[in-house]
Design a protein that fits this description.
With 280 residues, the protein is of the alpha/beta class. Strand 10, helix 6 and strand 11 form a beta-alpha-beta unit. The C terminus is likely disordered. The structure holds S-adenosylmethionine.
Length: 280
């Protein structure tokens, strides 16, 4: 693991986890230095109009991962500040990919105060080429007022010369992959989803600037490609490092896995059946 200091490309970056602030680290990457970015930023989930995640103690939310959030980040910015931050991140990502590079940017749409947050405020003016719906399988949701939320949105933001690998276009634009629910990280990607993305391209160096438990790194290893991983949490960087050596090291111990709901991650909304969401 490389601590943040003056970093030199490629040695300090390629196949390294860099523990530091996403913008500070990306600013040290030269133009055209990565072929592809695959990432899922924090969704600002604790900045929310109508649920118990807001107070950070959990409120109505039953799950430990939800209550605790990320180890070194609160995920609770004023919305406008969050949008500015994410746009700055996207600008850096766009700067460091070449003319045939692309960014797969995973996010979640949600309704806040009766209005759809479709993340257009984040991605407008970037070269969004296509939207892929990631349909998660199964899941649970006890809230009788809502259908089970089970999709996320992957923005393919591409420079003009970006092309998919041969035959990858046959996958279509709705992808079904089960949720990763054994990982100790509170909001991990499923490995097979990331392998689908990476193998759909010919990229050799893939950056995940919000690397978390290192799913993107493991996918590059499995596919014979190279990664650059950034995360602010030393805990997650360590987790990712260990995972590359031993993919099973990130699995939650059985006791925890058993007592938690199936979709025990920050991506989901869990509501205890005996709590009334309408009582304030
Ligand atoms: C949605 S998670 C990514 C999970 C990852 N895709 C995986 O499979 O494990 C977002 C990550 O962003 C990290 N993060 C939050 N703020 C950050 C910042 N300013 N700089 C770098 N990483 C940050 C969090 O620690 C968290 O691990």
């Amino acid at each position: 693991m490389t601590k943040i200091k003056k970093l030199h490309y490629p040695d300090d970056f390629v196949n390294q986890f860099i523990c530091g602030n996403v913008i500070d680290v990306m600013k040290q990457l030269p133009d055209d230095s990565v072929d592809l970015v695959v990432t899922s930023p924090p969704y600002n989930l604790k900045n929310s109009t109508g649920n118990g995640m807001k107070n950070g103690r959990g409120g109505k939310w039953s799950n430990a991962a939800l209550i605790n959030g990320y180890s070194h980040y609160s995920d609770n910015m004023p919305h406008e500040e969050y949008v500015v931050w994410q746009r700055e991140c996207l600008s850096e990502m766009l700067r460091i990919i070449p003319d045939d590079g692309a960014i797969f940017y995973n996010h979640k749409w949600r309704v806040q105060a009766g209005l759809l947050q479709d993340r257009n405020d984040i991605v407008y003016s970037f070269p969004v080429r296509q939207i892929i719906i990631w349909k998660r399988k199964g899941g649970i949701n006890f809230n009788p007022g809502y259908f089970l939320p089970n999709y996320e949105v992957i923005y393919l933001i591409a420079k003009p010369k970006f092309k998919l690998a041969k035959k990858a276009n046959a996958y279509g634009d709705v992808w079904e992959f089960g949720q990763e629910n054994k990982n100790k990280h509170p909001a991990p990607f499923p490995l097979d989803l990331i392998e689908r993305i990476i193998s759909s391209t010919t990229a050799k160096i893939i950056l995940d600037p919000f690397m978390g438990s290192g799913t993107t790194a493991l996918a590059t290893k499995n596919l014979g490609r190279n990664f650059i991983g950034i995360d602010i949490s030393p805990e997650y960087c360590e987790m990712a490092l260990q995972r590359l050596e031993n993919p099973r090291s990130i699995i939650r111990d059985k006791k925890t896995t058993k007592s938690e709901p199936k979709q025990a991650t920050l991506f989901d909304v869990h509501w205890r059946p005996n709590e009334n969401i309408y009582k304030r």
